[in-house]
Amino acid sequence: MSKAPDRVTATESAVDLLTKLTELNGGLMIHQSGGCCDGSAPMCYPVGEYRIGQRDVLVGTIDLPDPLPSVRVWINGDQFQLWKHTQLILDVVKGRGAGFSLEAPEGVRFLSRSRTFSDDENALLEASPPKVGADFE
Fold first, then answer.
1. Cα 113–Cα 118–Cα 124 angle in degrees, nearest 5
2. Given strand 108-116, what is the order of strands in its sheet?
3. What string of pLDDT tens digits covers the 137 residues of the chain?
4. Are 62 and 10 in contact (CB under 8 A)?
5. pTM for this entry
6. What angle do CA 7, 8, 11 make, to 5 degrees?
7. Residues in Cβ contact with 75 at an 8 Å cutoff, skipping those fewer than 6 apart
8. What's the pLDDT score for residue 105?
9. In this structure, are strands 71-75 and 86-94 parallel, antiparallel, or unpaired?
10. Side-chain-facing half-sphere of 63: CA atoms under 13 Å
């Protein structure tokens, strides 16, 4: 049987920026915003500075170079239902988003791209549902 695809990946530029921000701020997490403030931008926070809800879904993690910790990527449960058939691809583009996300002073912002999973990939993903915030309390 094949391995389920990652629900989240990151471009090299996103990994580079997350590495820099982790070195400056310690462990990080991403929350895929659901339409408030910056629209649907991924928002980057130091671990513990954004409260994960019980229904928020852990989409996956982005590995950083050793010895840095991986970055957990979360999304609101209702929004996950709309996105569950797509792979979230974290990217970076020039320009500033709102001031809530850690990358704002860098003159760049995180951006979500996506691709639709195939029927076979969706079947594999259904067999291994993601964890939610309540699983971590």
1. 105
2. 8-10, 86-94, 108-116
3. 589 999 999 999 999 999 999 999 999 999 997 766 556 789 999 999 999 999 999 999 999 999 999 999 999 999 999 999 999 999 999 987 666 788 988 889 999 999 999 999 999 999 989 999 999 86
4. yes
5. 0.92
6. 145
7. 31, 32, 34, 56, 57, 59, 83, 88
8. 82
9. unpaired
10. 4
pLDDT at 40: 73
Q: Tabulate helix, strand, coil % of the chain (nearest 5).
A: 25, 30, 40
Residue closest to 90 by CA, chosen among 108, 106, 68: 108
DSSP states along 32-46: E--SSSSTT-EEEEE
Q: Residue 23 — φ and ψ, nearest 5°?
A: -60, -30
Closest by Cα among 94, 102, 92 to 26: 102
Structure tokens at 115: 């691709």
Structure tokens given for 1:
């049987």
H runs (alpha helix) in 64-110: 77-83
